[in-house]
Structure formats: C-alpha cells, structure tokens
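Exercise 7b. Backbone tokens:
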C-alpha cells in the first residue's frame, strides 16, 4: 500500500529532545510491535536470531527443518522466500527483486544453505558460498547477519569477510582455513583470480550471490564482476548465481546481464522472483508557508532548516539525505546553529570522512544513540539501521530509483512503513517532488544497462588472468565472450588488447614496463616480472577518484580526505568547513593538510567533483505530466488534489499568463529582448547534461548560416541562448524545425560544436588508470592529481600522434559522447522536439521558468554577494509587474 500526502507548514515548536534511554526504549517497543514476519538478515543481525536449543550439521538441513527453525523464531516465511528456496534446490540461478527490508538476504542465504546441504561436500575444506557486496561497510554487516542466522541451522558452517580493509593476518587465516561462506567485494574477488593458488578453492564454489546488483550493472565495476563470473563458471559450470535488487526498471535485462555466462554454460532457464509485500510507503513534501514565484537554485533550502528540525523532533531517528557532500556540511552546521541541544545527537556522514568517523556514526545509528544523521549517498546502500523512522531528502532526488532507495532506509523490516519527505530547495523542486511520487506510484523506475566492450577493463582482466595461472588466447577469448558486456567483442579487438599487454601497442614497444604479459615456456601467457605483478595487484579495480589529501589534526588523528585542488587554493591561516567543524589550515606536507580548530564561525565550504546530478528521463517526463495536470486545472479553474501543485498555483498561473506551460507533446519556446541582447529560452525537459549538448548544437547550427556569438545557460528544464546580434528564430523554429532539430550528422555536428578532444582526454584519464598505463603509487607515496593528469595526458598525446589506431583512444571518444553528453538521450530528445507541437511566445520580461536560466548564466560572472543583490532587485521588479497584472 502506498500513501501520498503533503506536510502543511507549521511553527517551530522547539520541543525538547527525548532522553537517549527513553528514545531507545521507544524504538525497541516499535520493533517488538512489528508483525512476526521474517526480517531482512542485514538489518536483523545476530541478536535477532534465537537458538532453539538444537544444533545440526549442514548436511541435515532440509526444507522441513528450515520451516521448523522459522517457527522457533516466531516467523512465517514469505511466499517469495519459499519460491527462491525451491528454485535454488532445483539448481536454478536467478534474480530476486524486492523492496528494501523485505527479507531478501534470508531468502537467498537460506537457499544457498539448502543447496549446499544436498550437494556432495568437497574433500578439502573450501568456501562454498561467496557473497558479493558493492561497499565494504555492507560486507561487515552482512557477515555478522549471515553468521548469526546459523544458530540452530548449521553448526559446522562459518562466515568470514575479506575486503580491502582486511588485515594480512585475517587473510592468511582465511587461506589456511577457508570459511563456508565468504563475504567480499568485486575488487577482492578479482584479486583472488590473480592468484593461481586460489583457483582450486574457487572452483569448489556452489553459490555466488551478488547483493545490490542495481548498483553495479551500469558501471565498469559491474563489467569487472561479469568477467569474474565468466571465469568462475569456466572453473565450475554448475555454479549457481543469484542477484539481489531493490530498485530497477528493467528486471529481465538486468537478470540476463548477470546470468549470461551461467545460462550459456548450463542451458537452465533462470528464475526471476519478485517479492511483492504489502509494505506501506509514504512519500510527502515539506511545504513552506510561501514560495517565490521567480525561483532560482543555489540557496540549498537552508531557510527551511527550522521546519526540518521540527520534523526531526517528531521521529525517533531520522536520516537527512543531501545530494552533495558540500550540502551535507552546510546542513549539518545549520541544524546545530539553530538547535545547539542537538550536539552529540546529530552526526555527519559522507564518503570523505575518515572510516573511523563513519563507523562511529553507523554504530550510533544501529544502537539508537543518534537523533539524526546528515548524510549523502554514503548511506544509500546496504547498512541497515532499524531505529530509523524517517528519511528527509534535501532537494529533488533527481531520480525515482534514488528516491525509493533512500526511502527504504526507514522502516527497514517487514511490516514497518517507510517514509521519505522531500524538502525543496527552490519552488520548482516541489513539482519534481510531486513527479517523483507519481512515478513511484506508477512504477516508472529508471532502467540501467551494462557498458559494452570497455577495453580498459579487458586489458586489466588479461593481466589479472595472466597472473592467476596464465591463459591461451583462444580459451580466454571464448571465456570473455561468456560475459554479456563482451558478448559482441570481435576477435580483432581482443587480439589488439592482447598485443597491448604483451608489447605495449605500437608506441610503447621500447619500454619494458609496458610489456606486462609474456609467453611462457608452457605455451601460456603469464606475468613473469614480480614488480609488474605487484603493481598490478595494487591497481586492480575500476574506481577512480580525484587525488585526495588527508586532513589531520596538528596534534594527531585524521578527519578524512579532501580534494587536492581545493586545498591548493588555500593558504596557511585560511579557514574551511569540514567534518562538521570550522578548521584553520596550518600547513600542507606529504599530501596531508594539517589543521587546528578555528575560532571563527564562517568558512569556505569545499566543493567536491560531481556536484550536480541531472534529472533522469523518467523523472523529467513525470514532471511534464505534472505540468499538464496543472495546465488542465488552470484552464478549468479548478484545484489539483496534489498539495505540491496547490502550493505552486501562483507560480504556474503566472507562467501561464505571461507565456504557457511546458507539457507532454508541447515544446515551449520563449523569445525576449533585453539590454543584454537577444534571448531564446527552450524547455525540452531532458536534464542538464542533454541540454548542454542541445544548446551547443543549436547555437552552432544557427551560426553556420549567420555568424554570431552565443552565451549558453542550462538547467534540468531547459536552456537559454543569448546572442548579441538578433536572429529570426521564428523562421528557423516555425518554418524549418526539422533542420534545426535534425539528428542527421549528429555525431559530426556535436564533435564540431564542442571541444570533443578535451572531453575525450578527460575520459582517458580514467581509462589510463584502469588499463594500467598510469600507476597511482605505492601506499604512502601516492601521486598528486597534477602528476596523474600529466601522465595520462602524455599517453593521450603520444597515442594521438604515433598510435592513432589505439582502441583506447576510440573508447575515450565514445565514452565522452555517451557519458559526458548522453548522446543517445540527446538523439531521442531531438526526435521528441521534432514531433512536438511548437508553442512560440514573444515575452516582455523573464517568466518564472526563464528566470532561473538567467541566474544560471549570471552566476558564472558575478560574486555571490553581487548575485544576491542583483537577484533581489530583479525579483522585486518582476513581482511588481506581476502584481500590476502586466503581461
């Protein structure tokens, strides 16, 4: 059941926080009142499992005994859990899709135990179940949960964890005495494949479980995992593989991608299981007393901080999600400023904080000791906290899947409701909030697809397999093509990749360090140099982050990491906000920024890369549907039942009066002449990244007929073209829209109008790292960002001049178009624009939809203070015009 409603505005009542002991007791009481159903293993953990006094070895486990064990826990298995167990007992692989907190973990874990119980036990001790998680923090939690659930089921089974955080002593213990189940990450699994001694144990695996598959399928980590699965299936064709997913729009495709090598190897049809449970989901919005009719982004919604504090007070424990780390730092400090009594009960969590800090916060959430945590995507996945009752999303989630994923962090147990409240940072985000709710209700969730034939990952994989026992080209080519990502890989591309690791390609043949793989006496390609093997082992993986500097106290102890470029702009004595504190930079030495606590309150907030997330296609189209509903209500002089659209009535009616409303099948175009020049506003609603390409493309095509200079601005709703010279856009758009919006020669036109070479070079930095061209350095001797950029840039220039047929260059150019500019989505956008009915409006002043585009452009040329003053003047003038009903 899904309940949707808005939160009316209200005063900040300043209620006092409950004592920690009382709050913990209330959280425990709510958990006890939940229906006696199976809890998700990752959220229940060992304390939730009660031993029934009996203890059996694994070989005695069967369905009857499993059901008896469930009864002893006063639980009742869900129908979909029984479905998974039956499929796994039949030897089938599959994908389990269910909401967060619905019991997915127990479903597949118990199925793996049942399957292992009916199979012959290996002669030598070996790992029989491997559990892949996308994040290290989830690995530790999952290990505790799986181990705890064994009480009364299988007394001879153990569970261990092995990730990048595992110390050498623990690794050695795992190798000497392999556990029944091993929880690990894609990178650690690949590292195992690089060790020949590990292959015998890996060939004894019965079941491989991939948790949070939706987080891996669309990136190169997922590709790396696909190659690893293909390798495991080659070692053991009877291997069962199961994926777990919570938020995906293309389930069949996702299952097909994960299980491609399994199905090809066994011929057994996989099983898609959907765990449909009557879980209550509440998606609402925090609606303030009033909203500006001329919205603009950038103020982060801080003016709503008192209302957010009031919502935090109303729940036992709350997660406050932001879309960026900078935003999290700002909101954490803002909440403490207005509520000093939150000190010690409010925490901050994001990926740049030191692991010890993040661990402390996570433990505080689990124990119920924290009232609220301001966080980023660092808490999107996996680690589950039963005390969390509410989730607050600051700003639009920008995607339906992200909204649902974060909502699932609350009420994380069957029978408990999940609730997420969207806090808009500007007026039009209320429309996005209503659209996200509409899309979630109608199951319009984003699809995710695997990258195709990324050669940098393939190059890394060739070196990995050469280290792990060696290979012959024919056998490995066939094995690689077992993965969905490389199912269309040509032999020519594979042979090129092989030559690249054997001789360094056409331009690096004179450098022995790039001749990483050699043909050994046994006829297999192997890594024969120890230094190359060591460097490769330290470079395995596809995660590339900007070079970061440690932030450490002068007195000792680390706070986390921060991007090198930000610290480079500071000088000793400057203050910045980090980890919820105002810090003073003392000195920089050996890639570490040494700090002390500052006395002042105001400070610079670091800006991390990847700050702005574009609107997804699903959420963009749902937003247009909301505008269509508003258009109909305005025309019929009626009111929408949606509280967000009610709150936006003034803005939307003004937009309709001065121009029109964008909606499905309608392309709104506005033209304005001002002191700055000639403005064209277009509203395709295709997301920020697509609008960058569209604006550049249309400006370039127009300038081919008449030379002109354009300034460009864009947001998720549309784009602005500002020209010094007048252009008769009416002729172009009304008479020849098909020419302006044509997809013919799109690739060439995009390459000509944008600096495609610069975009490709930026993508090449990641490719150079993954393919092993650039080594980031040994621990304690890491390279700076400038060094890494110089190294990758040098390779890029060398290949361009002396190895133009280098396929890694082609990959960089393709990724620049597909990922930086979303070329496929841009092409679809042009098609939609051609097919839409054009609504052309000559406007006298900026409309509510045009205004934020003007501000986006001004933001680049004036300081924040000047911008705020100018915005205030512009809003005053526009409001006076609106009150005078001019239009």
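Sequence design result:
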């Amino acid at each position: 059941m899904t309940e949707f409603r808005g939160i009316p505005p209200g005063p900040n009542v300043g209620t006092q926080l409950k004592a920690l002991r009382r709050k913990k007791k209330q959280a425990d009481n709510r958990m006890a009142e939940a229906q006696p159903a199976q809890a998700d293993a990752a959220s229940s953990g060992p304390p939730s499992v009660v031993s029934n006094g009996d203890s059996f070895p694994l070989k005695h486990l069967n369905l009857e005994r499993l059901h008896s064990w469930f009864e002893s826990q006063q639980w009742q298995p869900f129908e979909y859990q029984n479905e998974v167990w039956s499929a796994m007992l039949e030897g089938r692989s599959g994908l389990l899709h269910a909401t967060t907190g619905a019991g997915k973990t127990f479903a597949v874990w118990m199925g793996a135990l049942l399957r292992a119980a009916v199979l012959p036990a290996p002669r030598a001790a070996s790992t029989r179940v491997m559990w892949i998680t996308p994040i290290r923090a989830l690995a530790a939690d999952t290990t505790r949960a799986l181990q705890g659930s064994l009480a009364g089921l299988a007394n001879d089974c153990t569970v261990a964890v092995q990730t990048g955080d595992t110390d050498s002593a623990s690794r050695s213990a795992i190798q000497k005495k392999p556990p029944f189940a091993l929880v690990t990450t894609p990178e650690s699994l690949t590292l195992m494949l690089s060790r020949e001694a590990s292959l015998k144990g890996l060939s004894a695996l019965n079941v491989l479980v991939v948790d949070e598959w939706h987080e891996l399928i669309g990136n190169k980590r997922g590709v790396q995992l696909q190659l690893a699965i293909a390798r495991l299936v080659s070692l053991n064709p009877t291997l069962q593989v199961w994926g777990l997913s919570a938020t995906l729009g293309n389930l069949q495709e996702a299952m097909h991608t994960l299980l491609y090598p399994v199905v090809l190897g066994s011929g057994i049809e996989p099983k898609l299981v959907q765990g449909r449970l009557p879980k209550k989901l509440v998606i609402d919005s925090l609606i303030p007393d009033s909203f500006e009719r001329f919205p603009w982004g950038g103020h982060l919604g801080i003016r709503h901080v008192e209302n957010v504090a009031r919502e935090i007070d109303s729940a036992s424990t709350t997660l406050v999600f932001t879309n960026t780390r900078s935003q999290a730092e700002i909101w954490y400090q803002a909440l403490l400023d207005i509520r000093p009594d939150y000190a010690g009960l409010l925490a901050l969590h994001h990926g740049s904080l030191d692991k010890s800090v993040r661990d402390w916060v996570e433990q505080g959430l689990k124990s119920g000791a924290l009232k609220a945590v301001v966080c980023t995507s660092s808490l999107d996945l996996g680690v589950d906290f039963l005390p969390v009752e509410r989730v607050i999303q600051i700003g639009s989630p920008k995607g339906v899947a992200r909204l649902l994923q974060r909502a699932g962090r609350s009420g994380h147990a069957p029978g408990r409701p999940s609730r997420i409240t969207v806090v808009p940072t500007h007026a039009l985000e209320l429309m996005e909030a209503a659209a996200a709710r509409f899309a979630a209700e109608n199951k319009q969730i984003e699809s995710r697809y695997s990258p195709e034939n990324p050669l940098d990952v393939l190059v890394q994989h060739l070196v990995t397999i050469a280290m792990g026992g060696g290979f012959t080209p024919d056998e490995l080519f066939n094995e690689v093509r077992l993965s969905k990502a490389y199912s269309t890989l040509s032999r020519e591309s594979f042979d090129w990749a092989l030559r690249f690791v054997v001789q360094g390609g056409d331009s690096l043949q004179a450098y022995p360090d790039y001749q990483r793989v050699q043909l050994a006496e046994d006829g297999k390609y192997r890594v024969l140099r120890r230094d190359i093997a060591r460097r490769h082992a330290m470079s395995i993986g596809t995660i590339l982050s900007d070079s970061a500097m440690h932030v450490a106290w002068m007195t000792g102890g680390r706070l986390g990491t921060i991007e090198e470029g930000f610290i480079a702009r500071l000088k000793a004595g400057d203050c910045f906000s980090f980890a919820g504190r105002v810090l003073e930079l003392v000195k920089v030495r050996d890639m570490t920024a040494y700090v002390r606590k500052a006395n002042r309150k105001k400070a610079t907030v670091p800006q991390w890369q990847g700050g702005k997330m574009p609107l997804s296609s699903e959420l963009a189209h749902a937003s247009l549907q909301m505008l269509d509903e508003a258009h109909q209500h305005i025309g019929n002089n009626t009111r929408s039942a949606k509280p967000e659209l009610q709150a936006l009535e003034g803005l939307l009616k003004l937009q309709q009066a001065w121009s029109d409303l964008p909606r499905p099948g309608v392309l709104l175009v506005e033209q304005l002449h001002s002191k700055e020049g000639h403005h064209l506003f277009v509203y395709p609603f295709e997301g920020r990244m697509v609008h960058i390409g569209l604006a550049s493309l249309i400006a370039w095509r127009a300038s081919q007929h008449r030379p002109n200079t354009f300034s460009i601005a864009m947001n998720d709703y549309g784009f602005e073209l500002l020209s010094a010279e007048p252009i008769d856009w009416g002729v172009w758009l009304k008479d020849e829209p098909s020419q302006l919006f044509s997809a013919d020669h799109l690739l060439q036109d995009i390459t000509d109008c944008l600096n495609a070479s610069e975009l490709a070079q930026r993508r090449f930095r990641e490719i150079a790292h993954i393919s092993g061209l650039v080594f980031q350095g040994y621990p304690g001797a890491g390279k700076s960002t400038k060094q890494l950029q110089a190294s990758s840039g040098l390779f890029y220039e060398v290949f361009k001049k002396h190895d133009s047929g280098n396929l890694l260059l082609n990959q960089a150019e393709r990724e620049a178009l597909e990922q930086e500019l979303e070329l496929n989505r841009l092409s679809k956008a042009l098609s939609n624009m051609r097919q839409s009915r054009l609504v052309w409006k000559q406007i006298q002043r900026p409309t509510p939809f045009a205004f934020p585009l003007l501000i986006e452009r001004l933001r680049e040329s004036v300081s924040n203070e000047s911008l705020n003053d100018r915005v205030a003047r512009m809003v005053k003038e526009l409001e006076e015009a609106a009150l005078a009903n001019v239009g």
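Instructor comment: Residues 504 and 514 are 5 Å apart (CA to CA). Confidence is low (pLDDT under 50) at residues 1-53.
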